[in-house]
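Dear Dr. H.,

I hope your travels went smoothly. While you were away I took the liberty of generating a structure for the chain from your last submission, since the lab meeting agenda had it listed for discussion. I wanted you to have the full record in hand beforehand rather than looking at slides cold. The sequence, exactly as received, is reproduced here:
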Amino acid sequence: MPSNTQRISAVLATGVIVLAGGWLASQMSPASALESGHDGEVASLEPDQTVTQAQANPVTMAPQSATLSVTISGVRSGAGNVYAILFDNAQGYAAYDINSAADLKIVSAQTGTVTVDFTGLAQGSYVVSVFHDENGNQDFDMAGGYPAEGYGTTRANGPYDEPTFDQASVPAAPAAVQMHYLD
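The corresponding predicted structure, in token form, is as follows:
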């Protein structure tokens, strides 16, 4: 998710581009505005023919947002909730710092499979870590240094796999996480 600083920078950059484009257009003569740019040829219009903005300046727009749909399989019971934490940076993921997470979703647990959708995302790399709060205390419980509740991470191969951010990251597209229970 973009930070406020990134959003402000984008708005300012857009303003500069619009103003510069307006100034440049005001400096061009009508004949030079119709130049096609191919060997100095000039496009001509027939009477009553109009050119739409898309024809005059074709631009392919990138999608403004994407959805990361995560299918979490192996949920052993319908007790409690499943927490899905979306990380968009290696530091927050390595520290498992929920305060620096890009998003957090909490859904009711159900035996088998649960799906969580993260919407409005920029294209990029994300890691999703999940845990099953079976006892409903809103905490990821540990026992003797090991997880006492179900957990998982995108692209983790097994319950003891601890992938780095780069190894665990997925694009904003459908992804899967396997829930692991150690007890």
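Two observations you may find useful: The chain is about 25% helix and 30% strand. Residues 66-178 form one domain.

With kind regards,
E. W.
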